[in-house]
Design goal:
This protein has about 100 residues and is α+β, with helices and mostly antiparallel strands. The chain contains 2 helices and 5 strands; from the N terminus they run H-E-E-E-H-E-E. Strands 1-2-3 form a 3-stranded antiparallel sheet. It is globular and about 40 Å long.
C-alpha cells in the first residue's frame, strides 16, 4: 500500500439485514452435521469476515412432535473489530434467515 492511499476503516457495528445477505450466505456457507449439532461456516455477507455458527439439537429440532419449518436466523459471529459493537457481543451486527434441512 502506498502512503497516499486511504486507509480503510473497520465497518461499524449495525444490526441490519438485507435480502442479499441470505442469498450470499446460502451460496457460501458450508454445513457440517454432527450427532447433535450443525456447524455453519462461511464469510459474513456484510463484513466479509469468517463467521461460524453452531446450531445445537435443542435449537433446530425443538420438539420432535412439532413440524420444523426449517428456517434459521443467523448472525455474523466474526471475531473482527467493529466500532460501536456492544460489549460481550461478536460480529458486525448483520443477520439473515436461511432454510436449513437436517436429516433426522
Amino acid at each position: 500500500m502506498r502512503d497516499d492511499e486511504p486507509v480503510s476503516s473497520p465497518l461499524p457495528y449495525a444490526e441490519v439485514t438485507d435480502e442479499a445477505y441470505a442469498t450470499q450466505a446460502a451460496a457460501g456457507f458450508r454445513p457440517q452435521e454432527f450427532e447433535f449439532a450443525v456447524v455453519l461456516s462461511g464469510r459474513c455477507p456484510r463484513c466479509g469476515h469468517p463467521s461460524t455458527t453452531t446450531l445445537v439439537d435443542e435449537v433446530y429440532r425443538k420438539d420432535a412432535t412439532a413440524p420444523d419449518p426449517g428456517y434459521r436466523t443467523l448472525l455474523c459471529e466474526c471475531a473482527a473489530e467493529h466500532p460501536g459493537r456492544p460489549a460481550g457481543l461478536r460480529g458486525c451486527g448483520a443477520y439473515w434467515t436461511l432454510w436449513l434441512e437436517v436429516e433426522a
